[in-house]
Amino acid sequence: MDETTSIGPTLRSRREQLGWTQEYLAERSGLSTDYIGRIERGTRTASLQTIMRLARALDCDPGDLTGKTNRVQPIGDSSVLAVRDAVYDPALLLPGPPEGEPTPPRELMRTVEKGYGAYFSGEFGALAAMVPRLLTQCRDARHAHGITPVAAPYAHAYDLAAALLVHTGKDDAALAAIERAVLTAREGNDEFRPVSFLGTYAWVLLHMGRYREAESLVVRAADDIAPRMSDTDEPRLAAWGGLMMQAAVVTATDHRSDQAETYLAAARSAAVRMPQEQRRYWISFGPTQVAVQSTHIHTTLDQPDKALKAARDVQPNDLLSIQYGRHLLDVAQSQVARRRTDEAMVTAAKAHELSPEWFRHQRVADAVVEEIRRRKARPPEPLAAMLTTLRGN
Q1: Exposure of 382 by Cβ count < 10 A (0-12 exposed, 13-18 middle, 19+ buried)?
Q2: What fold, for 191-316?
Q3: CATH class (in words) of the domain with range 8-66
Q4: Rg (CA), the chain
Q5: How distant is the alpha carbon of residue 48 from its chain centre?
Q6: How confident is the model at residue 6 (pLDDT cuts 50, 70, 90)?
Q7: In which element (H, E) is residue 290 found?
Q8: Confidence band for 5, pLDDT divided at 50, 70 and 90
């Protein structure tokens, strides 16, 4: 099953704005005219890889075709645009002394912890309310205390901004935020913290269709910290293994299955040397994460039987809420591919229950739910609830 829902009307509109025929778009994108016609008529959905090719041919962002956008329910006067504006804050160009007492670095880190709690619970509105003020507090604290004691919370504040901005379709701002996270972390005194953000950087590049650049970034970073065969240094193993796992995901999304399997095997070799699942810098790595990403990779490569087999090794208690939710969507997608529709509905409903706000921002959720809807004459209650979350009807 393709990962995304129909982009037909948007594709047609963009093509016609440029004055192009379907034949010309087919030539530029390397797709067939018939295939493009079926996408535009809505009789064929487009895979993520196809959307990336069409977006590049049309010189637009993939999100412009998929309609990925901000669907966060604001809390008070919070807004995703305020998060974007905090990343692009003009005050960074001419920094001055803070107006009030600067926030101690330890208190900033406590706020960061709350931010990750909101993010991994899928509470995007709460996160949007938190991040702009946190970034301002970090900037003021840097002016007062210097960068070294503030580098860790400041970098994580930018990481939180990047994560939220990706989910809400603002990839350019997300890329700026995660770049600042990496550069800020490098001014601290932790060798592996900057490396941890490179995985997020590659994740943003993946959303932009920049697969080769994402792969190159994480592989080069992994080479710099590669452990020895007998190495038991857990921070190094987790950082290196996490980068290998990200490389596997990127190459699988680019449908380079052999390369993805090679990177995944490398990540697995690091995970087996870990006594248990590790969570450092709010990034998880260990046997369960390898099983989660194996499931995702085989789902992406249209290998549902392998995906469902890999899912058996996942320990849900090792996962945070939306980590488990994203895994469940992969399982549901593979169940749909095997025509196990009722099981897929139950699995997707579990993901929906974890956080409807997060669920409505997941492109794969839309695809899975739409496919289940097509197969059901009357939508049962769980399916109706998911449709309401995704489409408001």
Answers
A1: middle
A2: 1.25.40
A3: mainly alpha
A4: 21
A5: 14
A6: low
A7: helix 287-300
A8: low
